[in-house]
Amino acid sequence: MRDSMNTYNNMVNRCFATCIRSFQEKKVNAEEMDCTKRCVTKFVGYSQRVALRFAEHNAEQAKILQDNESRGNTAELS
Fold first, then answer.
1. pLDDT tens for residues 17-52?
2. What subcellular compartments does it reside in (predicted)?
3. 14, 35 in Cβ contact below 8 A?
């Protein structure tokens, strides 16, 4: 849960800093809204790709560990 909140907060901070340029108007203008949508889409896509890569890496490491245990080998994981 904490990691999810950190990811969300990082996205909000980054997209706000990138897309919101002026506080002269009360409402977000169309350019800022488009920028924010693009930023959020990229950030979410990136986060999903990273999570997928971690899952793949963990699965590979689990397989190596299982193979080593079945052979009686206690070599370290990479």
1. 999 988 999 999 999 999 999 999 999 999 999 999
2. Mitochondrion inner membrane
3. no
